[in-house]
Amino acid sequence: MRPVDSQDDGIGRRTGSPEWLGLVSSGMIKQFLRDVDWGEVDYLIVDTPPGTSDEHLSVIQYLAAAHIDGAVVITTPQEVSLQDVRKEINFCHKVKLPIIGVVENMSGFICPKCKKESQIFAPTTGGAEVMCQDLKIPLLGKVPLDPHIGKSCDEGRSFLIDVPDSPATLAYRSIIQRIQEFCSLHQPKEERTSLAPETQQNVLDESSPS
Asked: Where is this region: Disordered (predicted)?
């Protein structure tokens, strides 16, 4: 794994964040995705905020020429999260972006001593599993809560290496394998390379909460 070097102090300050609006935000996304020489990479993963917005459309537009393999949709078990995720899935369908699958994060907590599982965020409507069955979308896996994840991240270490046998690590490895299998079989389609301006606005209008 080879990091990308930055020649300045980064974006924003340690105690603050940049305030990007409209064209400024779109311009920065373009700069990151199209004006950076990423070199030869195995995978380029773009982490986007929840919801459907101009930023999501910008990411799809600027990466279109590279043929996006698809989207991995992340949710938590409770219905309030699933409601937003259904809108995300509808957005992906509208822009003809393949959905690789759904990952249910914070999916229970397994006690490290007694090995008993507790549902911290109760899946009152069946969680991601039922939603994926209803929408006929692959469920890539469920990642349980694990305090080691936060500890490893704070220390800048790989969680997968520090606790290789934890349930969360095993879930991550299974999810990664399924994503790799999808990408290796995926064939780019030319019709996904662009969206007309009127289509972009329709997508945002229909995906926005009523």
From this structure: 190-210
Q: Which residue do the tokens 């995300």 mark?
A: 88
118-141 residue pLDDT tens: 888 888 888 999 999 999 999 999
**Collapsing DSSP states into helix, strand and coil, what is residue 193?**
coil
**Cα–Cα dist 96/193, whole Å:** 9
Structural domain that includes position 93 = 48-185
Higher pLDDT pick, 38 / 145: 145
CB atoms inside a 10 Å sphere around CB 149: 19
- Cβ–Cβ under 8 Å, residues 104 and 145: no
Cα–Cα distance list, 67 to 53, 71, 97, 192 (Å): 20, 12, 10, 8
| pLDDT tier for residue 27 given thresholds of 50, 70 and 90 | confident
The candidate with the shortest Cα–Cα distance to 185, out of 63, 98, 105, 94, is: 98
pLDDT score for 25: 66
204 pLDDT band, cuts 50/70/90, is very low
Domain membership of residue 26 (yes or no) is no
Query: How many domains are there within the chain?
Result: 1
Nearest-CA neighbor of 145 among 194, 105, 94?
A: 105
CB contact at 8 A, 19 and 32: no
Q: What is the mean pLDDT of residues 187-210?
A: 48
- Tell me the β-bridge partners of 115: none
CATH of the domain at 170: 3.40.50.300
